[in-house]
Each structure stands twice: as structure tokens, then as C-alpha cells.
Amino acid sequence: MTNSNAADPEKTEDRATDPVCGMEIDVGTATRSISYHGRTYYFCGQKCLDKFAREPAKYSRKADASTQKAALTGHAARLATVEFTCPMHPEIVRNAPGSCPICGMALEARTPTADVENTELLDMTRRLSIGGALSVPVVLLAMLPEHLWTSLLSVQAAALAQFILATPVVIWAGWPFFERGYHSIRELHLNMFTLISIGVGVAYSFSVVALMAPGIFPASARDPSGLVPTYFEAAAIITVLVLLGQVLELRARSHTSSAIRALLDLAPRTARVIMLDASERDVPLEQVKPGDRLRVRPGEKIPVDGVVLEGSSSVDESMFTGESIPVEKKPGDKAIGATVNVAGSFAMEAQKVGADSLLSQIVQMVAEAQRSRAPIQRLADVVAGWFVPAVIATAVVAFGAWLLAGAGVGEAVVTSVSVLIIACPCALGLATPMAIMVGTGRGAIEGILIKNAEALEMMEKVDTLVVDKTGTLTEGKPRLVSIVTTEQWDEATVLRIAATIERGSEHPLAASIVSAAEARGLKLAESLNFKALPGKGVIGVVDDHEVALGNLRLFDHLQIAAGELALNAEQMRATGETVMLLAVARKPAGAIGVADPIKASSAEAVRLLKADGLRIVMLTGDSKTTAEVVARKLGLDEVRAEVLPQDKAGEVKRLQSHGRIVAMAGDGINDAPALAQAQVGIAMGTGTDVAMQSAGITLVKGDLRSIAKARLLSRATMRNIRQNLFFAFVYNALGVPIAAGVLYPWFGILLSPIIASAAMALSSVSVVGNALRLRSVRI
Question: Rounded to 10 degrees, what is the CA torsion of 108, 110, 114, 120?
Fold first, then answer.
């Protein structure tokens, strides 16, 4: 333990807490500190320092407890900011758990986190356990032959016992259903809980009246002992079975978020922060701020997005790029949070933390996609809107029809209750959102981020794929291949001037020229009056000379005659090079050829997509000759070259006007309008943020083969939705008439409310179970 009375003048922005008195101290002005077990503690005065020195273990534990308390406080604050939404109605957003005011379903966290417990599942499980235990004797008394229990209880006493046992089941265990049913009627949003609450309420109320005042019923409704049959067992068992269905459904729904939870689990829980005094401390990830210096040791996950400051290492980035070979990292290189540091230790500066990190953005995108609504959902919404009133009307008609047919009041009540219970539209409402949630989660695992359900639905209908060339079909990392000069210029000078003017450009071709000049040791000059002309090139002033670098359109725009240089450029393009012409003082100086290698995966991707029936069109601002070379190598169907950025969306519109359903794949800012115009926009995850914001689907690995996977996923998801809707429609179309008793006159078939409630619960669980099959679909 060492004692220091000198303040470090560099420690001006850090603050610490005195472990003895708890006072907050500015580390930069602190005059007293002690280092203990690799950690530095700061004090407000000599008395606190002396106390710490006498019992360092005690006060260091106190400091650690304070740190832990602060972390827990931050945890509570994070929980308070969690938003909850309905899986069927994503427009409903609340800041606390509860039920949806439209459909009555339990709200769930908008973005699942490991911190938020499923309180609805815990509550329903508790109600199911207690309700189930109380229901067993009720059922036994109702179902067992009378001679087995009449020696112990009279018939009236048995009915009273059923009432006593069934009441807490119906009133307490089933209270959430009555509450949601009441709200649905009050808000005029009739839903499954409207039917459940009415059905159980009618059966229970009828039984209570029959037990307490049997005399008000006609003699025909009473048995020889003067009692009216009760249906406490039906009310209790229906409640328990609905609770069971809710528990199974909630558990199944929690599985739909497994993909997001798997992504969240990729992030480390802590980060090792390098303090201003060079000591290192592990802190919760939530406490990391932009600008913090972090240490990443071998085998650890990189905590946040940032840049390497010192040291070198190999990092496994396969979770984002799909490349199994670790990427070498050196000072100045980007580090992505949640990737694994394979070997070597390095220090990094945190840049993007929390919601700004790449992993958080991916999680948010997947979560938003899971909450979006596919166009096919509108059919289910329209049907559900009319369905509940129609079922209530059917139950009333069934009650009246059975009375007119000569049945007793009890039989009429039981029939109407069966209709209400079996017709709950939960399966119909769950059919689409459950499949969407599982499908988008499955896509995320494969590196296919689906921004909205409409893109997922439309993907299977696409018949034309429009692709950008640079960064989509090619690697987007061009390199200098050749230089041709006019007589009065040499290669080094042409390259130096071109690199000087291109330093102001963000285009990938510009970066390749600057890199080539730096590799040759050329000293670049200063450029003035830089201006980029989209689709043409750049102009500026270098060495007091007006300089222009770009394509033939730029030369035509500036009225510069390319002369022989144009022929040289055409020969270079014929080999697949992208050529930029250089003019100095409005006279041709040279041509620079840059080649952008075709991605190794592009040929296979084109083959797979064409085999799937897609017509592939390449849009590029590059020259027609260069574009056609790439198109021939890949076997594309159509090439549209020399297209200005602002005209790309127009080309997509042209294809759409011919009846084509178009998907556009691109990676640059200039692709954003076309991505938004296409029925499905597909952005490369290796491209710009603007492109990803404009697209409905993002391919994290930037691999076109994932488009074929997205098509398979779209087909599987839509097939699953159609299966769910078909099952839900058929189930209700058959179940309601049978429950109403239409088959009874001919076949004697009549459903009891207990069987109806079991069938209702089973229908919801089967729809969710069918959706969960998408987790294992092969794509």
C-alpha cells in the first residue's frame, strides 16, 4: 500500500468517491490518495486517509459495495425505460407490463433483455397452480357416481362444496380474464377475453343462482330432489384450461425472442477501463462512455465499438462478417463490440456505446421487424373485427333455439357457453405475428436483418433483382492497376496530382488512388477549391493549376477534348478497369485505371438467383465497357451503365412500370433513393448507414448469396402464416356450429364447455407451435 500526497495534473476530468466518508472528489485536484490491491482510492482529507490506512480491507469492501449499489441503481433505471408492446398490435406501447387495450393479450418487452422478467407468465403460472389444485375436488364431486360420496355428503352439501371450491378459482384465478373482458366491452374492442369472461361468468352465475334460489326455476328444470343442476365444475375447469393455454402460449411466445436474446448474450457484461492513473478496473458495460480507454485481453470479447489505440491482435469477426479467418488489428483500426479477441492484448478508445453500437442497432432492427405487420395480417384483422360480435349473436341464437326445442334452461346455457368458449379468436390473431417474430429471428441468426414484415412478405414475390456494381457485386476495395500519360507528363506526377485532388473525396476509387500514391512514397500537395460533381468526377486547384479528374462526361462538361486518351481509356475498360481521366489546365494529362475485384461469392449468388427465376439487372455509374465486362463474367441479364446517382431510382421505376416486382441491392449513399423506391430494398451490411436505413432487408455479411436465403425464408414464413390462418379459420368454422349443436339431431354430438375450452387452448398453442417450426427451417 503506497501513500501519495501529490495530485496528478492530468486527472482533471475524472471523479471518485471517498471510501470513508462518501464525499465525491475531483481526482485532478485531490491531494491525498492510496493504492491498494491495484486500485487507487482518493480522500477528502488526512483523517479519512488515516482511517483507510488503518483498516484498508474494511473500507475497500465499502467502496466496492457502493460501486455495486450504483450499478444496481443504473439497472433499475434501465428497467424503468423498458417499453412494452402487444405482439398483435405494435401500435400499443406502454412503459410498464399490462394487457393490450385492443385484444387483451399480455404486453411484452419491446426489445427483450435478460434483465426483464416475464411477470405475466409468473402470475399466470401461480394462478394455474392454485386454481388447478382447487378444481380437482370440484371435478371429482361432479363427475364421480353419487354412490361413491353420498355416504359422506348430501347432494346439496356437495353442490355447496363445489361452490366454495370453485369460487376462488373463477373469481381469483380467472380475475384477469374478467378484467380484460370488462375493458374490452367498455372500450368497444371485443376480443377473446370478451367471450371467455361472458362464458365463464354465465356458467358460474347460473350455478350460483341455481344453488341459492332453485325455487325461481320451473319444475321442469329441477331434479326429483328439487335441485337445479349446477355447472361449477365447468366454470372452474374452463378457467383452469384457459389459464393453461395462457401459460403455454406465453412460454411459446418467449421462445420467439430467442434470436434476440442470443444476440444480446453475445455482448460482454463488463469492460476493463484504463483509468487516468494507468490503473485498470472492471466496470459494468453500461458505465462505459464514449472516449473511455479500454483494455481487451486475449480471449475476451470486445466490449463496445471503437478504435485500436495501441497494441495489435487478431479478432474473430465471423459473427458479423461470416469470415472464419481472424482479422488483424493494429492502431487506427476499427474494433466491433461483441467480437472475440483471439490473440494479443490491445488498448482501444470507446466510440459507440449502448444503443449506438452495431450489435444494439442489429438487435433493435430485429425487434422492430418482429413488431411490424405484414399486409396479410389485414385479412385476419378484418375477420377478427366482425368475428366476436357474430359469435355472441350465435351464442344468443343457440340459447333461444335450444329453449324452443324443448331443452331445459341448463342445457341452453351450457350450449351457449360452449359456443362462446370454443370461438375465442386467439389463434386467428396469433397466426401472423408469431410467424413473423420467429421468421425475422431466424433471419437474424443467418445475418439477414429484416426491417419490416412487409419486406419479408414481398420477398417471395420478387421477379427482378437490381444490383449495384461497386461494393455489391465487387469487393468495393479497388486498387490501382495502370497509368497512361500524354507525352509531357510522367506516371509519378500524374498519380501525385490525382491523389492530391482525390484526398477530398470519399469515393472508394479515390481511396485506392491515394493509397497507391502513399505506397510509392509520393509527397502530396495541397488542393484548393475542391468540388465533387456527382456521376462525373472532381475538380480543384493543385500547384496553381486547374485540375479535373473523372470520366468522359466530366471532360464533355468542361469542354475538354480527350483526344488519344479516350482511345487508351477504352482499351483499359475492355479489360474490366474503371478509368479516370486527368486534365491539368484544361489539357489531357493521363488516364488512371483502377480494378475492383468481383466478390468470390458473386458468381455463385447470381447462379442461385437465376435458378430461382430472378432476372438480374446491374445498375452502375461506371462506363458501359467496364460494366459489360463484369456482366459477361457473371452472366447477368441486363446492364444499365453510366447511370447518375439521381437516376437510379428512375431505372427502378422503369422496371416497375413494366409490371416487374423489383428488389434493389446496394451499399452506397447514392443507392438510397433506389433502395427506397424498390418493393424490397436490400442493403449490404458492409455499406453505409444511409443505405441500411433506406432498405427493408440488410445483409450483415454483404454476401449476395444471402438474398437466396432471404427468398427461402420468405417462402417458409408465408407458407407458415397461410397454414396458421387456414387452421384458425377452419377450426372456428367447424367448432362454432358443432358447439351450437347443429349435429346433435342427427349424430347426438354436443360439445361440453370443458371440451370446448380445451380445444380453444389447444388451437392457440398449436398455432404458436407451428410458428416455432421456423426456427429449424433450412435456408
Answer: -10
